[in-house]
Amino acid sequence: MSLLDRLQTLCAEFPVPYEMLVMDHPALPTVTFLFRPIPGHDLVPVTSDS
């Protein structure tokens, strides 16, 4: 099972209204995983100001 498969499985197991975007762009050094809120949900992303 690849890392991508494991991440998608992990995302599916958590009831969080986020979708995973895989950014595989030539300008990026590695494959970047972005998590963004799915429109229509009321939950607000929590960010840590560390």
SSE layout:
Blueprint: H1 3-13, E1 18-23, E2 32-37
Antiparallel strand pairs: 1-2
Number of strands: 2
| Arrangement of strands in the largest sheet | 1-2
CA-CA gap between termini: 33 Å
Structural class by SSE content = alpha+beta
> Main β-sheet: number of strands, strand sense, barrel status?
2 strands, antiparallel
Percentage of β-strand residues: 15-25%
**Rg estimate, integer Å:** 13 Å
Give the SSE string: HEE
For the record, the count of structural domains works out to: 1
Shape: extended
Helical content stands at: 10-25%
**What's the mean pLDDT score?**
64
Low-confidence stretches: none
Tally of DSSP helical segments: 1
